[in-house]
Design goal:
With about 280 residues, the chain is α+β, with helices and mostly antiparallel strands. The protein contains four helices and 18 strands. The protein is globular.
Length: about 280
Amino acid sequence: MDIEAIVSYNLDDLSTLRVIDASNYGTPNPEVTDVNATRFVFSSVTGQANRPANVTALQANYEYQLVGTGSMTIDGKIFNAGEKFILRVSVTVTPPSTLQIDATGYYSPVTDYDPATDSYEQFVPSQVGIPDNLYFPDNIFTCEYDVYTTEYVQQTSIGAGTYIVTGNGTIVNDDTGMIYNHGEVFTLSGNTFFEDVTGTNKVVKLYGSTTFYFMTYKYAYEVYESYIRAIAAGQCGTSLQSNFVQVHALLHSNIINFEKGISVDLTAMQNTLDIINTNYSNLYV
């Protein structure tokens, strides 16, 4: 079964957006009630363009990558060069001289979304890695949606695969001694056991995931409508007439392609938003 998800939001009030699991659950596929955990990971064009490098103060829920050669221990876990990871606690570290830690531009909010009982999961800007914003800016986003099904309790053998920790505490891998917090993900290459360190916890195996793109264009669309009003009133300067035609073609092509799930050039889409917003101040010239 392919995991599928869609995004819904209201252009009139883009303070929230909703993600809906649209997977085809039921025989011969797993039932929706078989889902025991989910995870979301978001990024945006602007987030990718402003990734901090050589970070020592690691923030919870942000994704980082170890760059260089060698390995190091971070919050009770050993990471090798090239590995990406998301912690659920904030820590300050001092990498060895052969390594540095770079942000990847991805953010994973902690949620308890259950597609069996929840119609959707709702997010505000800070939950997708855009702090200090009341509304979603014009942007292009990536969303990874992961579904986990089979769950295991402590002292039960678990095999190769990717797992997420659920519960209210922390666990330890009996073989490696690595410690994982609620909401953290790890991958195994062979069989092992885990024990609860604090609280009562389970690990749930990844069934499948999907990555999709969506755009938010509230302000761009408002500016676009200003073009229409200005032209109708005979107030739009001739220097912007040709720009309006270009904006009309690009914006609507992007929106239609997204609604139909057609792959589009994300660079061209961002250029469209830039064109609209850059020319807004010159609208009546």
